[in-house]
Amino acid sequence: MWNSLWGKILTTFLISMVPIIELRGALPIAEANGLSQAIAIPVAVLGNILPVPFIILFIRSIFAWIRHKLPKLDGVITRLEERALKKSGKVRESVFWGLFLFVAIPLPGTGAWTGALIAALLDLRLKKAFPAIALGVITAGIVVGLASAGVGSFFS
């Protein structure tokens, strides 16, 4: 099944939902598996965007529940929050463009998951944060898609 067209699509979709890997990892894998960029980019973008509203709406409650039920993980949660807030400087200056750029520029430690976590920790409303993050994911998808297809070599 995984070698079929639908298997490759599902693989790309699921990998793009994984924190840290996100679409930055899913698109090169899709390319290596022979999935066309015309299919891979929209699938990875949708997979990467899907968790964003849930992160923005529920991550603080999830963190509180983890701290209450699994106090040994408090340090891990605190480090995640501190790391996200440390990267939130540009977002605080200009919410839309800060979030957009943070998510759009495909560098380690950036992306939809961290952008959504920053939005949640800064108490940004979903209707304000989601468009910036979604546009950032789309932009990152295009950039990474072009790079994984070899177009990025023209810019070096």
Summarize the structure.
The protein is an all-alpha fold and 156 residues long. It has helices at 5-17, 22-32, 37-49, 51-69, 74-86, 89-93, 95-104, 112-121, 126-148. It has one domain (5-155).
Structural account:
The chain is mainly α. The chain has one domain. It contains nine helices and no strands. Helix 1 runs parallel beside helix 3 and helix 8 packs antiparallel against helix 9 (126-148). It is globular and about 45 Å long. Residues 152-156 have low confidence and may be disordered.
Question: How is the topology of this model organized?
Answer:
Layout: H1 5-17, H2 22-32, H3 37-49, H4 51-69, H5 74-86, H6 89-93, H7 95-104, H8 112-121, H9 126-148
Helix pairs in contact: 1-2, 1-3, 2-3, 2-9, 3-9, 4-8, 4-9, 7-8, 7-9, 8-9
Strand-residue fraction?
under 5%
Number of domains: 1
Mean pLDDT: 90
What is the percent of helical residues? over 70%
Q: SS-based structural class?
A: mainly alpha
Q: Name the helix and strand elements from N-terminus to C-terminus, one letter apiece.
A: HHHHHHHHH
Shape: globular
Using brief descriptors, characterize the structure shown.
156 residues; mainly alpha; disordered C terminus
